[in-house]
Amino acid sequence: MASRALAADLPLLRPEHVGEPDVAEQLRRHRVDLGVVVAFGQFLPRQIRELPAWGYLVNGHASLLPRHRGAAPIQHAILAGDRETGVSVMRVEREMDAGPVALQRELAIGSDEDAGELSARIAELTAEALSDALDQIAADRVTWTPQDDSLATYAPKIERADTALDWSESAQTLARRVRAFAPAPGAFCILEGEPLRILAARTESGASLPPPGSVTRDDSLSLRIATGSGWLIPLRLQRAGGKTLDTAAFLRGRPIPDGTRLE
Predict the structure, then answer these.
(1) Which of 38, 92, 114, 142 is most exposed, with minimal Cβ within 10 Å?
(2) Which pLDDT belongs to residue 201?
(3) CA separation for the pair 48, 45 (Å, rounded)
């Protein structure tokens, strides 16, 4: 976005911290009418929130608020097994993602869609939703609807521990975790002391008799991993520092013997 602004010869401010004393003054010089925020991770102080001539900022948030307030709504929607998500255009207030909503746009989540694919579709929908909301604001016909705080759920920032695969969980839960963190940072397990990222997987029902995390090889170019309920079938794998490969290609270069236990 910065490169596009520069190419269009637009004024561009890139402070490390939006709360720095001179940021508000620089914005005032541009006589800002309204502020738009998308995926901005810093707290916005009151002097910034209320600086525009119209008195507020709007935010394009990647969920159907009040569900999934927070820094990682796309990942948490997949982790929760939601069948739909969307975009909410809301007014920015002190409490995170709790301001009144101008409009929402819904979007179905594909059964095999990962976070990268869903993020790309939500980005397009966010642009459309913000454009519609700004038209309503400019025409003075916007309606702000307060959120029902009792229905709020939260989507905190993703930590490394969140991406670890716990083989005692069900295959369905683990497959959602794989999708939620693909293509980055990637869900991972430990193979012989080193991290192994699983970037795509499917599930297979049925009793998994070996202990969870045990690898079963049906043929030379595929593998199944026992879970707390059912089997996880990896489709794309990546070693630390290596390329992302489909399972067959990975196993040609790095065999994983039958009975291997993944941590």
Answers:
(1) 38
(2) 96
(3) 5
